[in-house]
Fold these 2 entries.
Entry 1:
Amino acid sequence: MPAQFGSYQSEIYLQGMSGVVPAFTNDPTALESSARELMEPGPYWYVAGGAGSGATVRANREAFDRRRIVPRMLTDATERDVSTTVLGTELAAPVLLAPIGVQSIVHPDGELATARAAAELGIPMILSTASSHTIEEVAEASGDGERWYQLYWPNSDDVTVSVLERAERAGYTALVVTLDTWTLAWRPHDLDQSYLPFIRGIGTAIPFSDPAFRASLERTPEEDRNSAVLRWVQMFTGVDKSWERLAFLREHWSGPIAVKGVLHPDDARRAVDAGMDGIVVSNHGGRQVDGSVAALDALPGIAEAVGDRVDVLFDSGVRTGADVIKAIALGAKAVLLGRPWVYGLAHGGQEGVRHVLRGLLADLDLTLGLTGNRSLADLGRHTLMENS
Ligand SMILES: Cc1cc2nc3c(=O)[nH]c(=O)nc-3n(C[C@H](O)[C@H](O)[C@H](O)COP(=O)(O)O)c2cc1C
Ligand SMILES: O=C(O)C(=O)c1ccccc1
């Protein structure tokens, strides 16, 4: 195991002997309800909620529950290695922090706390275009930590180039372009509470900090905050994007690029043809198309369609170490973790995020060993059994 993860076996026993209980639960399935008790309803439902009836949020979990791991015995899995390489980044574990926007609605330190916790554990953070702190501030908070940048592709080429240049200059190495949220979906929870974080003027790092965006305004964001925020929201709505236009991003980003939100094997092939380096199989945590296929059900077909021509990443519904193992067994190289650590952020800022991540990494390492596997390469379709 890489040094920073230590020995989880001894950690379990030492914690048990110390009698010191953690600040909040180690049960990933209890995190959401415990966060609900301490968060305001607006931010809570913004994070927890999904599109429409919530069918896809449930389907994501159901797809994990339907598959079960078949453990093997006496394989000598005392020494384990969960490291991997994705888009040229060496990872100590196959886990990255999914891009999550407007984190200051959850905790005042927002992305800064997340960046610090991720760096402490050696897990890359993917910074959202909709972040509440600037690209540069988050880069500084992440110190030596690996950083990736997520792009919501602006309608203006000037603004696109400006953000990409800033991200490269600030040391972000890989780019994740999100394709599934060119407009926000019908999200009844947010509508019922009239809670749209950025319309309320939160998460406005780009409107305030980006020179190209500022240049496009008649009045500065300081003079007219609402117009700046509205214009910024319009910047991300649809139009003018195509598989061919990905070449434009390639021209302006020198590192690897992945597209996020792929659910059909043909779209995965188009991403390969467009020269992408990776794809993220994802339904945005059930927040966009209510009734869409569970991301885990889409994964095996996509992994098969692209083979090893690009790196396949996965998110939507990952909650436990066993879930990570299931996604990897079905063809992902690594997973993006979303809501769980956001609840950690709500519970205790940097320390809360760290607590959730550490628990997941320990669970992953222990489950890998207890199922009789020494490395991620040992996992495959043979690892799982599917229940009807
Ligand atoms: C509160 C919240 C904000 C999000 N913001 C973004 C974002 O800014 N960019 C993006 O690509 N995805 C965003 N996502 C989607 C996540 O990156 C990820 O796909 C999703 O959370 C995975 O589902 P899970 O949380 O159920 O595991 C957001 C998700 C949540 C819950
Ligand atoms: O809420 C989301 O799912 C999301 O992706 C987003 C989009 C814009 C701003 C903040 C988050």
Note: The chain has one domain: 27-70+84-372.
Entry 2:
Amino acid sequence: MRVAVCQLNSREDRDQNLRVARDLLERAAGAGAELAVLPEYVDYLGPGKTAPKPESADGEFAQFFGRAARELGIWVHAGSFHESGPDDEHTYNTSLVFSPQGELTATYRKIHLYDVEIAGRVSYQESRSVAPGAETVVAEIAGVPVGLSICYDLRFPELYRRLAIAGARVLVVPAAFMMHTGRDHWEVLLRARAIENQCYVIAAGQIGDHEPSRTCFGRSMVIDPWGTVLAQAPDDITIATADLDMPRLDRIRAELPSLANRRL
Ligand SMILES: NC(=O)CCC(=O)C(=O)O
């Protein structure tokens, strides 16, 4: 199964963000990818005060990516978008997955919200405007069980262990990881999740400056269950592809059965 990570620099112009996403999906399909994964907040990454009105999970955003999946004949994981939330003050940060027929086959709402204060570096309170999701999701993509997560979720290994126990063989991480934390933590955390859960990891990130206080790390990557980085995007708006080898995953799980040997 060939997969592509699509690395974007979403900003305030929603239509332009979607145009670039569509262009990258076309490149992914042209490169033979069966599944293309976009980053967190494909629709908008700009100041809160100019954010577009959130929409429902069957609104324009969903229709746009359902149509792209159908026209290109590939599975599309549409990163995440601002979904209407439980009240007027809060949205959900939501991922949608579309089949090559354009059907919405899975929905996941980010569980762990990015509330951090790193003096002089990062000040972010996601829970002020976003409500947390409550459900873990393993989606069937091209016959493969795929565990869904979003960005800051990456720091919570218990989520991924739960996904692996539920049968996930691939873990997907659309992200807008900060430059300040990304340069030290992004690859280490992704490789750890791959190794400890003996899963492929597909991680698509936002890259570059989005607003005065936010620069994203990029370095979208695909990692195998041994922890080897199979593909990494350069610091640009682009794609990277890799082939997932499921018999190799079975061999790793059989030879080093740490998932089967767990006692807790
Ligand atoms: N959008 C996010 O969840 C950011 C997470 C991040 O940068 C981190 O260090 O964790």
Note: The chain has one domain: 2-255.
